[in-house]
Design goal:
- The chain has about 525 residues and is an alpha+beta fold.
- It has one domain.
- It has 13 helices and 19 strands.
- Helix 5 runs parallel beside helix 7.
- About 50% of the residues are buried.
Length: about 525
Amino acid sequence: MHPLICASLGVGCADALRQRSTRPIPRLAAVLLCFSLGTFSAAAPAGPAAAASVFKAGFAERDITPSIGMEQPGGYKKAFHRAFHDSCKVRVALFDDGRTKVVLVGLDALVVPRQVVLNARAGIEKQCRIPGRAVMIGASHSHSSGPVGMILPGEFDDAPEDLRRLAYEESSMADAGYLLRVTREIVEGVKLADATRVPAQLGAGLGHEDKVAFNRRLRMKNGRSWSHPGAMNPDIVGYAGPIDPQVGVVGAWDSNGKLLGTVVNFSCHATTSPGGISANWIYYLERTIQGALDSRAPVVFMQGACGDVTQVDNLSPNQRPAPEAWAHLVGGRVGAEAVKVLLAMPRSADVPLDARQRVWNIKRRIPSPGHVAKARATIAQKPRPPDAADWLFAKETLMLDYLVRKEPAVEVEVQALKVGPAVFVSNPAEYFVQYGLEIKKGSNFKFTFPVELANGCVGYVPTEEAFSAPGGGYETRLTYYSNLEITAGRQFAETGIKLANEMKPGPVPEFAKLKAPGQPWSYGNVPPQVD
């Protein structure tokens, strides 16, 4: 029975594949196959060649495009979708080394609520027998996607009437039906990837793109740091933080050399918003890779640490591109770099897998009584104050004051998934890029890919320096969305490094080496002809 049919009839994904399994490829055949694909190394041990019949990969996509009229998340007030640009997707990469399976799920979504993750993992474990600790679910942070936040349905049902109104009528809110749909499609996507996985080879590589992402926090002459102080502001001293120009790429090919799918990791807010419902610049990332390689293979995007990194360069004297052109620029350049890496990377079927996970609680920061009293006075003003930001952040303060009484700490998860020579290290924050760079530096893996907004959402998590006297900026404001204790970022980084280094990196693929020197080219081994 075909595995897709088995899956549709409710047969477990793993069982379906066992029913159609064949005997391992003989060792000699596997060696010849690796050699023909340019990946066999004479110096390699016998084991990796035999592994060509064991390692498998499967990729899948599912549609989660919201409807016109649904809320558009990403701000502190309500906004609604009025047009369509391109589809939003669940993007799945599943890897199987014969003993362990790991899954990377990239969502074209602003965030992924913790309960969606837990429910989806439960469905995946039940239907595909893959434990939750081996499934990483990350949001791209697309500001042009479906209603997954910020307020969750029912979250303020027990609050006083005035707070319910602020939460449900004045704030960006998730749609209960849409959350159920996203959860269902994550499970269906993993089932499809599992049912269609095939023997594969994998490669990993790093590209470099430093022209489309910029730190949005700038040092000012007054000694503080501001977020987006305005293009060419004369009081700007310089950038207050770094960027991460690495383009992390993992590619998988079947035994015939056909691309099965690509995983891309890069650090930049998805705020280009090309006009209407959209995966944001990730749409053009996908189009660039698929167009250049003449392939429809899925592209799974896992967002890097970009809490303070966007496409906006506050030091540029040039006019900013229109949204469509800007989305094309960011996605096109990152995609082109990914193509270069894919074309140049060696491949191997020796891809050991592993997973690590830590779940614990982190306390929220509590707004001061004076801050709360000022917020109440601001909200009580009739008419509203002329500065909309003052009113919006007063609203956030009152909602946070209620939230910390109800839930003074929040469950967080840091996860590390090993895919051969690469490791994906996740956290649930809009994470400052400095911490992502520190995770890369502290990891024993050559290919280390930090993933933010994964397996939950806790808002902005800046560095401790950003909370100091010379710090500041939008990301440090205390809101219903962003409120973890100041040391949270350090906790995430140290935990991620520890989990990654509990695992041994898989071998880095190499190109086949020549067995002997080559013979001179008969056209070229002649003296100069001058007569």
